């Protein structure tokens, strides 16, 4: 079920008014859990059982971990829970990838691929289940005695299929409180939802028209046309994914719950490290806390730190998709993190830094521009249909190759729009993004909100509305 559908509107209204009628916290949680299971089953009811089983395994093992007589037994139970969750994820998402890679490596003609359907959102809810188990093992969180809060945490429908990846330590305490469903929360949530909706159906979906055409046959288009399509894709994927996160945050807000920020104007980043503090924040922080730091982080010397960075980004790339292109995309970002860390170490060692204000500003602008260009280069491998297509795209851009001139006008329009919005956000919120929530107790904010709704209805793209990250 997509946020951009009549079915979702009906589900939201039914769940919202049912929750308003609830007398207790438990009744509200039960309504939200039913709504979440209906939301998920709408995609494919067959996989609802898989979600419930995986949730129950995490719930049961967390209780046993907390009650384990020894640390060694608790560790074995934690490893068992993590292994089961990863095995489920690995089978559905990576089985054919590993089989095909094994066959290619040893020159075997075919081992036979299975027709496996990828359960929507499995990468997201698996990571949430893992964080709960690991946090209970580490003593950061108490295991819950009741199944209801754990099942609602893992399957809460606003963020179930495409994030943000919510931590149990952030969400479960909210379930222990009487979270108000006030008009103010509804108004703020609606505005945040509308903010994401505009990014998705007005910007991302419209840019997809030009992007899909060029990436489908890059040999036919001129180098400049391809360059504009790459820029358009950088805007499309940002607006598509951050738009979903905004909508999820807005829906949760209407029910009285807070979800973490997932994007913070990432294209204003000055270096790779900052980019991953601003892009898909819930995933990058999850990888940092549950993979990079357990591997040793930066505590075991410079070489080990760089190895850990690369391993983390390789697995981060593989999380995005079962293909060597995604692994290579992760390797590019891992390499960039290593180069940046090395440069920072050498600069500190040699005392190299811009001293004057003018030089700092020039260096800052150049860093933002360079980081954006590098990110676009990485997006080519992320979006291209194959490695040869990615090389073709880069080659035709670099050589200014002739071909069809397809200068999609919305690329320029939305590039300017995003740049201006980012500049405003940067100035008004100390370099960070924010939700420009209006005070609807006054007249003119109401007019502005109605105008935004009207413009959305006038300019939304009525084609395919699938979210890019549903495939992960």
SSE succession: HHHHHHHHHHHHHHHHH
Globally, the shape reads: globular
Number of strands: 0
- In quaternary terms, these chains amount to single chain
Structural class: mainly alpha
Count of helical stretches: 17
Main beta sheet strand tally, sense and closure: none
Give the uncertain stretches in residue-range form.
Answer: none
Estimate the helix proportion, in percent.
55-70%
In round numbers, the mean pLDDT is 89
Rounded Rg: 23 Å
The fraction of residues assigned to DSSP E strands is under 5%
* First-last Cα distance: 16 Å
Describe the structure concisely.
This protein is mainly α and 472 residues long. The protein is built from 17 helices and no strands.
What do these coordinates show?
- This protein has 472 residues and is mostly helical.
- Helix content is 70%, strand content 0%.
- The radius of gyration is 23 Å and the shape is globular.
- The two termini are 16 Å apart.
- The model has no long low-confidence stretch (mean pLDDT 89).
What order do the helices and strands come in, and which of them pair?
Blueprint: H1 6-21, H2 25-41, H3 48-67, H4 71-105, H5 122-138, H6 147-155, H7 168-175, H8 183-216, H9 223-254, H10 272-278, H11 281-292, H12 302-320, H13 324-350, H14 357-383, H15 387-399, H16 409-428, H17 443-459
Helix pairs in contact: 1-2, 2-6, 3-4, 3-5, 3-6, 4-5, 6-7, 8-9, 8-17, 9-14, 9-15, 9-16, 11-12, 12-13, 13-14, 14-15
């Amino acid at each position: 079920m997509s946020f951009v559908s009549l079915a979702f509107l009906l589900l939201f209204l039914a769940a919202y008014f049912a929750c308003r009628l609830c007398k207790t916290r438990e009744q509200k949680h039960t309504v939200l859990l039913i709504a979440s299971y209906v939301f998920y089953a709408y995609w494919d009811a067959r996989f609802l059982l898989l979600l419930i089983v995986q949730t129950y395994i995490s719930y049961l093992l967390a209780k046993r971990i907390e009650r384990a007589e020894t640390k060694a037994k608790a560790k074995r139970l934690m490893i068992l829970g993590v292994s089961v969750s990863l095995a489920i994820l690995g089978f559905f998402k990576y089985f054919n990838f590993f089989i095909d890679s094994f066959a290619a490596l040893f020159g075997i003609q075919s081992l036979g691929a299975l027709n496996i359907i990828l359960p929507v959102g499995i990468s997201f809810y698996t990571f949430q289940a893992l964080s709960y188990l690991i946090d209970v093992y580490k003593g950061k969180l108490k295991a819950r005695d009741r199944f209801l809060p754990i099942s609602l945490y893992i399957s809460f429908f606003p963020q179930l299929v495409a994030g943000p990846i919510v931590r149990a330590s952030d969400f479960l305490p909210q379930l222990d409180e009487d979270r108000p469903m006030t008009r103010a929360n509804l108004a703020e949530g609606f505005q945040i939802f509308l903010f994401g909706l505009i990014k998705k159906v007005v910007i991302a979906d419209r840019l997809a028209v030009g992007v899909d055409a060029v990436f489908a046959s890059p040999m036919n288009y001129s180098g400049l046309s391809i360059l504009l399509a790459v820029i358009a894709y950088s805007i499309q994927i940002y607006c598509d994914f951050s738009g979903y996160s905004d909508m999820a945050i807005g829906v949760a807000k209407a029910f009285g719950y807070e979800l973490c920020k997932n994007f913070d104007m990432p294209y204003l980043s000055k270096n790779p490290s900052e980019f991953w503090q601003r892009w898909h924040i819930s995933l990058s922080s999850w990888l940092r806390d549950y993979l990079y730091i357990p591997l040793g982080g930066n505590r075991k010397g410079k070489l080990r730190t760089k190895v850990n960075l690369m391993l983390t980004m390789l697995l981060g790339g593989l999380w995005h998709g079962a293909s060597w292109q995604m692994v290579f995309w992760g390797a590019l970002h891992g390499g960039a993190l290593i180069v940046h860390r090395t440069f920072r170490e050498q600069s500190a060692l040699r005392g190299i830094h811009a001293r004057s204000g003018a030089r700092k500003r020039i260096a800052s602008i150049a860093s933002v521009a360079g980081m954006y260009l590098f990110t676009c280069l990485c997006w080519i491998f992320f979006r291209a249909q194959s490695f040869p297509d990615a090389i073709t795209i880069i080659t035709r851009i670099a050589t200014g190759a002739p071909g069809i001139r397809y200068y999609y006008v919305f690329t320029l329009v939305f590039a300017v729009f995003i740049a201006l919005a980012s500049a405003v956000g940067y100035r008004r919120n100390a370099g960070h993004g924010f939700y420009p929530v209006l005070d609807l107790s006054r007249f003119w904010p109401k007019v502005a909100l109605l105008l935004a709704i009207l413009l959305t209805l006038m300019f939304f793209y009525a084609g395919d509305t699938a979210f890019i990250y549903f495939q992960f």
